[in-house]
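Section 3.1: Structural characterization of target chains.
Under the original work plan, the team committed to producing a structural model for every single-chain target entering the pipeline before any wet-lab resources were allocated. The record below documents one such target. The sequence was received from the expression subgroup and is listed exactly as submitted; it comprises 339 residues.
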Amino acid sequence: MTQSFGPTALITGVAGQDGIYLARHLVALGYRVVGTVRPETGPADRIVYLDGVELVELDQRDRDGFATVLEETRPDEIYNLAGFTSVGASWRNAELVTETNGLAVVRILEELVRYRERHGTAPKYFQPSSSEMFGVSDQQPQTEGTPHHPRSPYAATKSFAHHITVNYRESYGLFTCTGTLYNHESPIRGPQFVTRKISRSVAEIALGLRKSVTLGNLDVRRDWGFAGDYARAMHLMLQLDQPADFIIATGQSRQLSEVLTVAFGAIGIDDPANHVEQDPALMRPADVVDLYGDPTKAREQLGWKPTLGFEDVIEHMVRADVDRLRSGVEESMDYLFAR
């Protein structure tokens, strides 16, 4: 018996945090999901999260490769979630981040124009923008109309990709949406991100495997949400009759020190001070003090709102890392959603 599917979605970078949550959401909705992974790494241990997903190797910078995948897949929707994601590391990799986050987007959009010329229509396209684009903003919270003032190579490339996506919509009539995603976390966030560094370290402290965690600036404030909620917002955008741009955020600003308080509280330590060290070497050359977004448009036009609050997300991450350490199982479907 042949299995039947609904629409086809192409997710670049499907083995990343956002790709995994989006893939699980779309598979549950009956989509055929095709996901790209980097040729040199593949999905590795993350294959456990990608049941039901057709995997294709693709370097994000390979225009001809993308054109081939596009023609062979014939997707209804494209979610471009591949790219360079570390703000801090972008200072050491400015050329690479420009290629993967900036020029790669131009190449994708150019191929969508050509695809439409051949077939008369083009897939709907989602581009993830970043709150880091706003940088030093005198507007709190930020809205869809807040000017960009990026303060890192990563932020500058995301700003470029944002504007070029809007430009191709307005110039060529493509269905392209941008979602400006504020910090969104989960137990499958990469270990290089500060929230996961904290949750893993706190779990190790809980089990007596270490005594402290070393961090940089504890005064920065961000708008932290749950990655699964943000993946759901991406899908909602491409279900609209007309494309638009949205802020996806919780609307609340929290200090990094609050992440520590909640994380340590999850293991029964009320005061984390004795377990936290600061290292000036971990400070960024130009940091952004505070960012939080206004999700009003997403709430009113998409019907979207977060399902997990800040405390729930951080506690969930700590519990999952404790489970990892106790079981020795690094990747499991059990870690994706709070129980």
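The mean pLDDT is 92.
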